[in-house]
Task: structure prediction
Amino acid sequence: MLRRSIITAVFLAALAGCASLPPTENPVAKLPASARTLDMFKPGNEQCYDRDVMGETFVVDAHNHFRPFGGAAKSMTEINQYLLDTGVLFVNVFGIGQSLPVSSTCEYYLDCLGTPALPSMKNDFVNAMNYLDFDPQGTEMTLSMTFPDLAHPENVVEQIRIMDREYPNMFKWMGEVNLVKQALFGNHHAATPIEAIAKWAPFMALLRTRNIPISIHADLGADDEPNKYAPLMDEVLHLYPNNKIVWVHMGLSKELSHANPDKHITKMQAALNGSPNLMLDITWRVINDNYFTAPDMRAKYLAFLERNSTRILPGTDFVASHKKSYAVYREEVLANSDILKDLSNTAFRNIALGQNYFGITGMKYTAPQICE
Ligand SMILES: [Zn+2]
Result:
């Protein structure tokens, strides 16, 4: 790995001098991403993937919020350039499950406790319109429906029908939707009542027939009670074993930043073993910083990722507020990819090079083989 790091550093140093960014931006080196193109992922491609030269960051961002909580968003064109510059070729275009009211001047829900932050169809419409208007090139974007309110699921099928009418066949993912998100408790969100989960049946059936995965934010608990909310996701997995469900952040959060790694891994392993259609998303740098950095914990999670390398999706959990720059996205890609460089070639191909993502989406792409 050391050799790789040196080569990457040399490569980045070389690129730093020639990155062409708008003059208002601080020059930030691009990742060694220019070697990556969609063509490399087309069936029949015979070029192997060289981890030393082409980089060890992920090509899939399965968790990217193109809409902010409130305030102005980044343009889709600008985000697409961030993706290209970091070598992220495949992305899930999430709205946001906690949009602030248009009357609010607030831009981040934690800055305005008491203001409701609730799911809405607005941001999904905007993403679809932007996608049509700007026709992003060089990447593959998967539009996602972020509007469902899991505690009040009665209208979700009707809302999907509206999306069908306005944007037929455009939405191929659902989420991130919030089953329970403690960070939102100050903004009129509460844990979804367990009885509401059975009422998802009509829309979950529709997702199954369309082969649409659903990314669910489901906090396991908090540091003083690590499994407080675990029964909620257990109920989801019990009731909907045939849906493609993605458990985001492996149930971890800022509130649960000191879980016992052995217990957490045991819980995740049991969930994966019991639910063959479940996948885990390892996005959000809170996970990297608290669980993947200390060497003893990193070793445990690496073994877990290797064991389950067909069940893991990578990404950033970026939120595209106008206040963020390319440097922020780049840093998110680097932090959230850090653990991937220590994976075996097989696991790297499955997770970082998108083989798992192509499998769950049914996209007609295939990850290149790794050069020996
Ligand atoms: Zn998210």
